[in-house]
């Protein structure tokens, strides 16, 4: 299973108006650490489908959102809840560390 993509055109509906928490993975095709963390996020999504939604946002294709949310390094993950950023995670991490960072949502 691969995380669904969101874009500037769908971000409002996919993320800001979503029911429940949404983790947005800000990434780029050329980013090695982004490609390393992607399968880990897919695992977390498949293990907790009813607790958190995980979406990917390509920063090269959506620079407006990268700028709006002050993405200066990738991978960067932000958890939105009720339209607000609640948690920010920077950098690729192993699964146990990401699960720890997301414990408030998936625990």
What would your notes on this structure say?
- With 107 residues, this protein is an alpha/beta fold.
- The protein is built from five helices and five strands.
- A five-stranded mixed beta sheet has the order 1-3-2-4-5.
- Strand 4 and strand 5 form a beta hairpin.
- The model has no long low-confidence stretch (mean pLDDT 96).
Show the helix and strand layout.
Blueprint: E1 4-5, H1 11-16, E2 22-27, H2 32-47, E3 53-58, H3 63-68, E4 76-81, E5 84-90, H4 95-101, H5 103-106
Parallel strand pairs: 1-3, 2-3
Antiparallel strand pairs: 2-4, 4-5
Describe what is shown at a glance:
The chain has 107 residues and is α/β, with parallel strands linked by helices. It has five helices and five strands.
For this entry, give a set of tags.
single chain; 107 residues
Approximately how much helix is present in the residues?
A: 25-40%
Beta-strand fraction estimate: 25-35%
Mean of all residue-level pLDDT scores = 96
The count of helical stretches stands at 5
What is the β-strand count?
5
Please report the distance between the alpha carbons of the first and last residues.
21 Å
